[in-house]
Amino acid sequence: MPNMNYPYENLSPEALPGELWSPIPKLDAPYEVSNFGRVRRLEKNSIDKKGIPRQKPGMIIKTIISESQNSQTGDTAKYAGITLSANKKRYYLSVARLVYYCFVDEFDLSDKQLLVFPKDGDNLNLSADNLLLGTPKDKAARMMASGRRRSFFPEFSEEVKKKSRDKITATKKEKGTYNVSRYSLSGQLLETYSNARIAAEAMNTAQGYISIAARDTGKVVTACGYLWRRGNEPELDLKPILKERWYGHSPLAKQQHIIGQYDLEGNLVNTHVNTVEAAKAVRVHKNGIRNVINGRGLTYGGFIWSKVIRKKIAVDPKITESRSGISQYDLDGRWIQTFKNCVAAARATQVDNTNIHLAVNGHTLTAGGYLWRKGQQLRININELRKHPHYAGSGLQRHMKRKREAAVLQ
């Protein structure tokens, strides 16, 4: 057997001691990567064009080693990659990025400004505990420290350099711009460090990764599972952060409401984290909500759905045209029935036609002990009616008071 210096060179399907496997992210295909940097294809059953069942056995996929020449030193650096097929397409992926994402910390794989480095300087040592995340600035610093890159700035004397560094340090200390603080995902201050380098050492990551997260200007809003900011504010306001839409890879995405629920007049009723949670709240199927969002429907469950979060959105004229009829609701906001017009509603319910008309147009709150609305939806939000000018002393107010009293007695 040939001498093997790295785990990826071992093509045996047998697991190595301490080896763990994880599905390759963002790729809907039967591939896995290990914490040692090996990539395998799982056993797969399929049917060929002739309808004959075929079985592809699992196997370790050979890693591709590419070389990049350093024009300044003349030597070459080696990098490990892998080519995989999925959905009739071929993808070339960096093994180091996959290992870091799966076994160290998730990050935006599409962000090419985030780089994965080996701690020991060996690009072929793909073990998860040898990897850290950084930026092009970190890469340049590492290359200069190892003598593989020259400084493009003029050479100054040590005295001039020291004087410049001391001046910068004094200015930053005076303004407090050196401090960097770590926060929980709820915005609570956890710890403050004197600078990003010390914070990075504590988190076992690259200084540039912490610095980017602390700037609050790019796509990386978290680093190592935490929020970071310059200074030492006791708490962060998450509202402006959660309004952004560019960080699905971030753990903050679980707190981000990106689905808007609107009534048929375009007024915002509620927001939800995703279509699954929205469907649970309204008690409908998630696919119907997704169809509306993707333009394959106008409404679903009596509501308009959108990924645009605003207080009010424009309503498609087709929805307005289809909103015919007058609907009757009980004082809990539940739909009872829909009539062709106010006259038909009055005949069926024995409630005065004029009173129904006034309630429908918002001049009164109720008519005949019921709520009335144009069009039809499964339920209306009665809590919003507390702001109605005729809420005080109305039958709805008395009804809600009785419900509160009954809840206290129970």
TrEMBL record:
SUPFAM superfamilies given in the database record:
His-Me finger endonucleases (SSF54060)
Record's Gene3D superfamilies? 3.90.75.20, Winged helix-like DNA-binding domain superfamily/Winged helix DNA-binding domain (1.10.10.10)
User: Per the database record, which ranges form the NUMOD4 domain?
Assistant: 19-50
Q: Taking every annotated instance into account, which residue ranges of this chain make up the domain Nuclease-associated modular DNA-binding?
A: 259-291
Q: Name one GO molecular function term.
A: hydrolase activity, acting on ester bonds
**Protein name from the UniProt record:** Uncharacterized protein
What organism is recorded for this protein? Pedobacter hiemivivus
Its lineage reads: Bacteria, Pseudomonadati, Bacteroidota, Sphingobacteriia, Sphingobacteriales
